[in-house]
Records
---
Amino acid sequence: MTSLGIAQILVYFVIVVALTKPLGGFLYRVFEGKRTFLHPIFRPLERLIYWVGGVREDEEQSWVRYTASMISLSIFSFMFVYVLQRLQGHLPLNPMHFSTSHAPQNATPLTPDLAFNTAVSFMTNTNWQSYSPDTTVSYLVQMAALAVQNFVSAAVGIAVAIALIRGFARHSAKTIGNFWVDVTRCTVYVLLPICILATVFFVSQGAIQNFKGPANATTLEGASQVIEQGPLASQLSMKMLGTNGGGFFNANSAHPYENPTPLSNLIQMLLLLCLGAALTYTFGKMVGDTRQGWALFAAMSVMFAVGVFVCYGAEQRGNPHLSKLGVEHVHTGSQPGGNMEGKEVRFGNAATALFATVTTNASCGAVNSMHDSFTPIGGMVPLFNMETDEVIFGGVGAGLYSMLLYAILAVFIGGLMVGRTPEYVGKKIEKKEVKMALIAILATSLCILGFTALSSVAKFANNGYWNPPGPATANLNNAAAHGFSEILYTYSSGAGNNGSAFAGINANTPWYNLTIGIDMLVGRFLFIIPALAIAGSLAAKKLVPATSGTLPTNGTLFVILLIGVVLIVGALTYFPALSLGPIVEHFQMLSGKLF
């Protein structure tokens, strides 16, 4: 690692810390219904939405009604995106004529299974794409379906996190808020204003925003090149802020139109973590003890720091066998050194490793490099980040409610150690809460490991299976350990609602589109529904005064316990699978026997 690379990472994290308190305080005021500096501008819009939707702002819901509202919006979102995709050939703003007889030869057909996978993906805030967006979907689908879902799915995640916080903050209550009010306030006062400013900034940096069709250009060598265009910047800002990740181009944030400068790269990474980090402070404010929020922030920060420096160190060291071939791979003043395969030379190893760590911490599929080209240990970091259920800041809202479920497990284990009923922020944690937390954690791991195992051996997966040590199949560019890692990464990304990929796998088959779709649904709703059930249960409970036997949950001891629970659960669950993939591949690289 270089001093400049380390400095880049530290500067980024310092900015995240600086944003956490003011943004978290703003979120607290928004969701508590307090007046903010944006109310003179956006309050009329908020009232209009309530009037059109028939929503009573002062009416709250039980956790069952809250959950039913969330599910109904999600079903509508899925159907809307699916239908719009299937009809795109008959709709306007389709200058490339996708899904018509005049479609270009390189266009990807929007088959029913692909449309299903995409609709589920954007409804669940995953934004996994089994296709190249610039050769598959029209501008109308990009804007009216995919970009809109970037807002909706992000708002749903934040609303669920706020509902769970209310469960801890309230006592002897039957309600946890109003889902429609929470989603509206999140969209109007948080997501929309930030995205407007971010879109203007990205356009100023060189991101495109137009409705033109592809342009034909002649290169300096005299070859012909097709340059895709479209309404990119407006989707770019929300895909980062909402930790969605669906790219306008297949190269995503490695594309110069999506990520033109090092400054745009920094702002994209800040957008990825700012809301997830801020919600920890919001939690502390709403439960009446900001130290509780900072404890969660500290646990997330420690795991983030370990991940980013392990990834950066592995990528900067590169492949030791290159030196035996006479290739200079050490950092010098004239070249970056390390493993630069699949990376943008504009960003280098430090900014690339940081982006990869942040995007998989934040449950976002945006990438500024190809993770498939990382070293085995460098690639294992983003893979393991997703397998922790995205609790390291995580997706907007999803990171906090996932971490709170782990906090429930942590105090339960702590209670077992001292032989008393566990408590967390003044609430007794009993059998129901622990069961709900375990359902969420076990369901995602079952999907990841189960579908990975099936796709690795089952021939009915339509050639999407792994057959070591034989040749790569039609759906897998690599055999042996790396091929297995590609499959494991795919289902980890789906269940973690992340959306990034080891790009060596062709997932656009009926088997993968269907199973990844199920994977994403389980990862989203079998976390949200238990979290809301816990919120309802906790809100109805009375506050329990702290005693000398109460485990403090706002200090260093609890931070260590929480980190330990996250890592131990992840290690025990996924270590055998990781041993078959990146770990064995690492030792093969050291021995020079990669195959």
Note: The mean pLDDT is 88.
---
Amino acid sequence: MEKRQIAKIAVSAAIYSIDRPYSYLVPAPLVGKAVPGVRVTVPFGKGNRRTEGIVLSVSDEAERENLKLIDAALDDGPVFTAKQLELALWMRDRFFCTFYDVARAMLPTAMWFRDGERIGRDKMEKFVSLAVPAEEAAEAASQKRLRAPQQAAILSLMASVGEAAAADIRHFTGASAQSLKALVSQGYLEESVREVLRTPLTFSEPQAAPIALTAEQQRVYDGLAAMARSGKASAALLFGVTGSGKTSIYIDLVRDALERGKTAIVLVPEIALTPQLVGIFSAHFGDQIAVLHSSLGMGERYDEWKRIRSGKVRVVIGTRSAIFAPLEDLGLIVIDEEQEHTYKSENNPRYHARDVAKYLCVQAGALLLLGSATPSVESMYAAQNGKYKLFRLENRYNQKPLPRVTIADMRQELKNGNGGSLSAVLREELGWNIENGEQSILFINRRGAANLVVCGECGYTFTCPNCSVSMTYHSVEKRLMCHYCGHTERPDDRCPACGGRLNYVGAGTQRVEEELHALFPEADILRMDMDTVTRAGSHEKILSEFREGKAAILLGTQMVTKGLDFENVTLVGVLSADQSLYISDYRAHERTFDLITQVVGRSGRGDKDGRAVIQTYTPENEVIRLASEQDYMRFYEGDIALRRALSAPPIADMFCITVSGPQEARVLAGCVRVRKTLEYYFKDVEGAELLGPAPAAIAKVNNRFRYKLFVTCANTRRVRDILAHTLREFAGDSKNRGISAFADINPLL
């Protein structure tokens, strides 16, 4: 029998239940072109619909009957290296996703094709963003594929990118403006008009002098450098108080890696932190650095990817997705503020950047360094048990003490007749700072003006018609908004049920800003939340203005709590310390401690002493008290004991299966079927415990009900295989038509 080349190909059209390598014949003209890492077009399914694929391997085998031929090669050469293909296959098996889910996360959007042509990008002012969760958009795309193919193409793209210029969407999907408008009217997408700034990064020659480390920093650096130079894969946790100079150690470790011919990745949790870190690193490494994060335009991300792939870049700085930067000779990965939840993806592939970093470091024999003033409980547990080596920085770099903290009891404020957002002590401290030319940062983890609009007479509340949540009032826009599906409406002047007077309850950044202007009309105030940082470059603009002293107060959500370093900030105010404390999540205490500790640490980082005011209705709460004292280890000891009692991570791993659909009864029934299946498969898995089904914390989002089922046990290959098999069985069962299920490991609840 004649021998021909046969390629194993991952196909983009294959859903999770049928995702596997498919065999295709390589036609003679494509021999040597259709090689591993190259994208191709192939016929797929009974109708032989043309779809994209990625060549995984090629071998010479006896020609088999009924194998289909590859149509065409879309790339001149591999866009995935052999190591990247291995990573994608590892993630596919680890995170319950398809190979193409991973591939789309690894490559910049501008690299993908439409009708054989590479996607481009134009400067446009109209932007479109996803108004529903990505998995729901993907589900809607599959439902619309036959009757509305243009809408399906748009939703498929938006499920992967989240946001793009309207012109770009129409260009690389071939859809009409009418299809785009239809999806907006159906509530799947939101339109906005924005200024587009295409300013490429420019770097001068490195100017910064070598860093003078303190004796404490030098001791830590020497230990970490020895690990990095060993050539063996290793992991370390750098636990340093806020302002202890962790960044200086990162820079010296990166310098050492470059001198050894290695490359480095430095991850930060928030886009807002990127400009500051890029400025610091470019002063030391010039144009050897590249930046990757979601606020870059498609063209900018593509250009940065090309620079990295070419070998011209040796240091990559960015948010979660920068972990996929195509660097060779990796020697170091730094994850700064490693405890942050933004390192965990909530859409397919549902990976944690820390897990991917571990894999990469094992493959490259590199050092993984996790840095934080408030390490995640999981990371400290690993350090205490010897999986990570623990290094500590216990003093601030400038030898200044930690900020002096005052706890303001808001119950007493109410008794004293103060119903506003700012306590008397915080108002006094703000006034002193304004008078003396010093700056302040205020943190409240809620945007908008009021989180509840309720009738004072009949109790009517404005709730989202698509989701099981109340809507937030935004005073600037004078509209009610659902922060889950994006639905907006203008509220009536009176209660629509009884005509009674409406009350606006609770406070967000907009309401606090209004109060500040009324209290301090002479002071300039900057607000930083999702409503003010929508435009490209808006993070940099706000932070730059504050750094230049153009505002006395920076008010914001958790964007202002991490990594910011302003010498003239001597006061920090936490306006609602209780907000994240009393939710049904085993991470609630950790998140609250982290937010308070981190934002308090923004104060007093220069020559002047720092102060902080923490406002709370429960001043006796242990988490609030320990955060005010910056006593992480006592907090950790209490929280790990709680998790041990709950068998929660890191004591055991937690798998979450979510079932969703438009009819609640069918969703619940589907979740019950999953439970029964898992009971059978897990009956002899030691230590496995099943919980649920139960409604999600937000039971309905965009008219889709969501129920969850939890499995706590060790994360083993057998357990993952059971869950993967269960999901595939679910998808193939006709009883589950119209509802979907997915799994996530150690999810953000």
Note: The chain is about 35% helix and 25% strand.
---
Amino acid sequence: MEQIPYRRLVAALALLSAWAALLTTSSSSWAERQFKLPPAWDHALYLSMSLRFHRSWDEGGLGALARTIEAEPSAVAPLFPLSTLPFYSAFGESREAAQLTLAPYLFLLLLATALLTASSGASFSTIALSVFLISTFTGVVNFSREYMMDLPAAAAATLGLWTLSRRGPGLLAGLLAGIALLTKVLSGIFIAGPLVYSLRAAGWRKMPLFAAACVATAGLWLFFHFANVFQYIRDYGFGEGSIPFRAASHPGYYFMVLVTQGVGWFFAFVLIASGILGRRRAGPVAFLLVWLGSGYALLSILPNKGGERYVLALLPPLAVLGARAIAGIEPASVRKAFVVLALAAGTFNYAGITWPFAASFWTHDHFSPFPHAMPLAARELRGWPTADVLNALGDLRAKTPEPASVAIFLQSTRGLDDDAFVEATYRAWLRREPDPSGRTAYIKGLAVKSRGEIIESILQSEEFRVRPLQVAVVPDHRVFNAATLQYLAEAERRPLRFRRAVNGGDLEGADAALVKEGGAQGPWPESRPSLEVLEALEGTDRDGPAYPCPDGSRVRVLLLSK
């Protein structure tokens, strides 16, 4: 790549920044219309993580933040939620502030795409065209607007792969690969093929330096979370968790995803036609093709099919190859026509998603992103009783346990010795195993106190008063699911902890359960309440409060016995 004059470099970065800022502003105005519903599933999980990280940092500094990251039970890579901390500090904790986290990653994706194009000595117009293409590809438009880790992961992987193509598997490439893994573990799929290709060209002697830099960047987090990450990949990549995503697992699945959800129908026509008509040009085409081919092959091997989320990191090489192919079309009149077609396709993609109109059905709506999703009807876009349910659970937590509940518990533990009784009491009222000092103190106390007095002592303890209420959520609905309710509770600093109940064991240790009576239970059959959960709840008192939902169902709050 030739040396670019300083002034031209500054001007190019300024133009790129202005373009990214314009896209971000448009995305913010679009998102305001979408925030009438709370975030769903994965979006809510990432937002909850960002709130926990910010509050740890705000209240305890770097040490508290490090402990929170280490203790985080999720297998989700932490870099993207961590990136939200500056925006929360500047603008407050809100979904609007969190969405701004995508802006720097969008800029990095555009920058990395421009650098990839410039690596072949392309003209400024070809570089600008590649940036326009990646900006208006359907998948990028959608995921630059929703608080998901996929666009940040694609940006980090693209920047790392550009470095790999230019400098080989060295220190900087390893550092950026580690950052990509900290953004999303699945990013490794896109790095693997190009890495082997680069090592064959540069020699395997560079591998230790690359590996050391990668491990130094991502290794500490992976060390503490390897078991969770491994289990998550095994279950959701190949096991039962992948079953709902396997509906279209034929070899050509991701080709259709790239056409419809990745670049869009009209862009696909322009890119295929320009690839046929454009003459071959010098440059790192082989590296880009290895990137595309190996990434596509490894994704196809996974039983889990995640639609556009999984192909985002394949879009930058498509943008570079597409821009280069258009620039290579002769004669000039045909080339100009294809440039106009590309600009029209991108404008249609962006406008059709941002400001829906009659022909928008040709674009891909991010709020129905997966083949297993069940979109909400128009009447279901508002009126969900999430606030009522959270208030009811708050009231339930504030109540002193009824004497009848204590009496039932004492009756059920009559046959236990003192040690087993103390253990059962901790599990029932504090929802944890007794610590050694607490166990010893209460066993000694039983020599002079009754078991009822021991329970009363625990119920008056500070730990019991501040202990979060444990709630099992049976439906996995777009609005009523464990992740969404957890985010809403954390946003309001409510002492509530939600878990998804998919079998009877998930009810153990729960203080309450949420059941959706009627209506859709979730986006796929496997997420509906299992018979085991329903059977376990059969004897539960159904007198708890119930709240009507706009789909004609009711959400009922069930108090579970000790």
Note: Residues 207-238 form the longest helix (32 residues).
---
Amino acid sequence: MPDELATNGRKSGDEALAELRDILVGPEREKIRQLQQRLDDRAGRAEEISRTLPEAIRLQSARGQKLRLALQPILEDSIRVSVQRNPEILSEALFPLISETVRKAVAAALQTMLQTLNQTLEQSVSARSFRWRWEAVRTGKSFGEIVLLRSLLYKVEQVFLIHRKSGLLLAHCEAESAVVKDADLVSGMLTAIQDFVHDSFGGKQGQDLETLRVGEHTLWIQYGPQAILAAVVRGTPPMTLKNVLQPALERICAERGAELTEFNGDVTPFQSIQKYLKACLVGQASKTKRGQSALLWLVPSALVLAVAFWLFVSIREAREWNRYVQALSREPGIVLTSAEKRGGEYFIAGLRDPLAQDPAKLLASAGLPPGKVKFAWQAYFSLQEPFGALRELDAAKKSVESRKVHFRPDRADISLEELDAVEGSAAEINALLERARRTGKPVRIEIVGHTDDSGPESRNTELSQERAKETLATLSAAGVPRERLSTRGAGTAEPVSQGTAERDRAFNRSVSFRVLPAEQ
């Protein structure tokens, strides 16, 4: 009966305590449960963030540029990927603005040129001028426009499609009567001329070479994001020729945009765009042909020779540079991060293992002057062979050279206490010789005997030699190949420890080891 009362009493106490706990912390526990429920509800949290995110962005934008700087790389990368996937999005968005602006600019320039030409030619009186005036009246065009159309006689003889980044020829098309040279050579010369113009005149982004005239030929160049269209024109073409070249280049870039972006040297995908290149072989024939004096060729010929010589030197240097970069990238322990030409100098940056070949020594074999190449290396430890084995060999060398065998005063025999040290040295020397053999860099061990500064020098030299020979005999007995060992007595000339205290003298009564290449 007492036990039952006690039990009932405890139950009553527990129930009272539970009721008291609910009264004191019950509301807080309910709030905590609600908070946990809100945290677990991902859809609810997303809804709450969507309501506060616009206001948070507005407040952060007003306080500074941290948000813009954080979002800028993400937005730029998203736009780049979107344009790469579908270039028509950007072109369709910008077309109304750019097309209208370009059309107005071209119309204004042509109008000014035609007015000037009209004022100049209206005073001329000839049978041809009367025919042109009648055509102007009949067609409703101005006299200057008719003169421009009838006097600009030309013919597009060749068209080149060149990869903009690498400078390699993608496709080529020529007229039947054209004198065709090596298309790849022409492409390489064009790339070299563009580099020369940029290096010499400091062209900014978007400022590229557009025309190049040699004699009666003119090279017209149109630029796309990934390709260049170059047309070789004989005669004097009208500005409207751009309206033929630029659309052809745009159609090629739209049709072969992915192949241009991922171009790796294979020109097979660009064989199908010959129809666009052939459409650029336009021209206007001349009814009469006048002879030209040979003197008119002197200046262009001299210019061609000068340009050809410069191109020869530039192309040869470019090839030597490319060979050097390729050879350097194949060197173990060297990782190139950049290799470029700025002005008249070359710059190379990357990672280089301290044990790797010196890149400056490879310049002579590549034919490049050392003063034109600047290096910027960051040290790193390569995991390639044989650098791991070489580091193990270097560590073994340091370990052997750090060992010493100590002797008693005026004694050359090895004490029992030092025998363990000699046996340990023998084991390390054998391990070093084996690593050296595997790496192809054989070594030998020079045993150098030392003495303290007590006694005459003649005795010290003799004693140091005896200590070295005694150590050699002990190492040989412990299994070290005798042909890999040599001795030398240094006396007091090469003290192990500088000083005159007894502790320093004890250090100098010893034998040390030097690891030398086997051929020395």
Note: The domain at 312-379 is CATH 3.30.1340 (Histidine-containing Protein; Chain: A;).
